[in-house]
Write a structure and sequence with these properties.
The chain is about 60% helix and about 0% strand. The protein has about 350 residues and is an all-alpha fold. It has a two-stranded antiparallel sheet with strand order 1-2.
Length: about 350
């Protein structure tokens, strides 16, 4: 028994074909929009690639670009099918094309939904990638003379100024690493020698931060050195005073930025997904309604359209049987190849 049957008089079929043609071209714009969002997100992620440990998060923009391109092709053909459905003589040429077209269309439409889910579910992966990437970025901040890391200082400084953040988790991350290069240290100075000797790893650690951590909105001139030494500054108490540094860590700032982007993109792509599903469902009804007209003398008769020719259970069973039939020749060929190899080995044994 057909699933969700609907009766279609001639005028209703014509109006549906015309409306669906317009809707399919609107969905083409939706595919272009999805592809553009993928490129935009890819570009934004690439800008901060130096502070990311892995590229797994790029699966989101890659999926968006693939689904967007597929949507362009799907809806282009949907528009052509709608146009030809107005002419009974031209519609039959699409008959052999429709089944693979719907299979591919459903697959790539579901890919849009996957992209939406991924855009909301990748927060943990993004946060871990930034945690490791920022930690390494801060550690290599001083290596301005090391090939491959020459631009690391500029990257971190621009990041902290653009996103108004400091350190990985907070400004205290700078206390735990040597961020001043040895070439700028006076090793004849007693203070420098004492600091290096006091550290197990022989690093020059200071309770200070780079200039890019300074908050220009603070009324007080920036205090970026000797932050924990109250006597080093007039009228200063580092434990109670709100420091004139950015209080937010860069990891949290970047996670908030990228998740805000992906949440907005997810909402936009979800609307494209709903539009695409509307096109496919409507096109299925139009196809089945038009197939009943083919071969009839009167093209203006009332016909029935449906989503599935059989019930969901029967359709799934039929699909699985088809898949098994397609896989059987491959399994037989593999078994034959194994049997041939075994026979060759037996034949070779007496000869040896």
């Amino acid at each position: 028994m057909a699933l969700l049957k609907v009766k279609f008089p001639f005028q209703k079929r014509v109006r549906m074909a015309q409306a669906l043609w317009l809707l399919s071209w609107l969905a083409v714009l939706g595919g272009t929009f999805t592809f553009s969002l993928g490129i935009f997100l890819k570009t934004e992620l690439h800008k901060r690639a130096e502070v990311m440990d892995n590229t797994e998060i790029h699966a989101v923009p890659n999926t968006l670009m693939l689904a967007g391109l597929a949507s362009l092709g799907i809806n282009f053909f949907a528009g052509k099918i709608c146009q030809d459905s107005l002419d009974v003589a031209r519609f039959p040429r699409w008959k052999s094309f429709m089944q693979p077209f719907f299979v591919l269309s459903v697959f790539f439409t579901l890919l849009l939904l996957v992209a939406v889910i991924m855009s909301y579910a990748m927060k943990g992966n993004l946060e871990e990638s930034l945690k490791v990437g920022l930690k390494n970025g801060i550690r290599f901040y001083k290596d301005t003379d090391t090939p491959g890391r020459c631009s690391q200082k500029e990257t971190i400084d621009r990041l902290q100024m653009d996103f108004r953040c400091c350190g990985n988790t907070n400004y205290r991350d700078w206390f735990e690493i040597q961020w001043i290069s040895n070439r700028y240290l006076d090793f004849t100075s007693k203070e420098v020698k004492d600091r290096i000797r006091s550290n197990v790893d022989g690093r020059f650690l200071v309770d200070g931060v780079p200039f890019s951590c300074c908050n220009p909105r603070s009324p007080r001139p920036c205090i970026q050195h000797r932050l924990t030494n109250n006597s080093a500054h007039y009228n200063y108490e580092h434990q109670t005073e709100e420091l004139n540094l950015y209080s937010r860590g860069c990891r949290q700032a970047l996670v908030n930025y990228y998740m805000g982007l992906m949440n907005s993109i997810g909402a936009g792509v979800l609307s494209v997904f709903l539009l695409q599903m509307t096109v496919l469902v409507s096109l299925r009804y139009l196809q089945t309604a038009m197939e009943a007209v083919v071969g009839q003398e009167n093209a203006e008769i009332e016909t029935e359209g449906y989503l599935l020719e059989k019930s969901v259970k029967e359709t799934v069973k039929e699909f699985m049987d088809t898949v098994r039939k397609l896989l059987q020749p491959t399994q037989v060929d593999a078994a034959a190849a194994e049997g041939g190899a075994a026979g060759g080995e037996k034949a070779a044994t007496p000869a040896s």
